[in-house]
Amino acid sequence: LRPLIISAVARDHPERAANFATAHWDVIDPMLESDSKFQYVPYLASNSSDLNMITRLNEFAEAHIPSSARSSLEKATAHIRYNVQIGTHLADIDRWIATVPRTQGAS
Predict the structure, then answer these.
(1) 55: which of 16, 33, 47, 71 lies 20 to 30 Å off by Cα?
(2) pLDDT above 70 for 105
(3) Per-residue pLDDT, 92
(4) Cβ atoms of 40 and 21 closer than 8 Å
(5) Residue 91: what pLDDT?
(6) Is 105 left (phi over 0), alpha (psi -120 to 50) or beta?
């Protein structure tokens, strides 16, 4: 149940969920299935748009994820980079929209 609660938090707060999971890994690790535990923290962090999360994920992986089981880590870091790019583009679009003159209703 606890890993599910942390996963639910990760939908809206991926950094908080991933940071919590890594800080309490010794408690969370035994609750996870052996075939999915190496995917858990990368999954939590994958919706992040903070490039610093990639550094934290890599540090966690060095200590807890075997190099042969890091495909989920690679996917999560790619998704984080994508999220950062989208955020940059959205900011550009917002700036562009702000420069477009508004018209007073069509007749």
Answers:
(1) 33
(2) no
(3) 86
(4) yes
(5) 85
(6) left
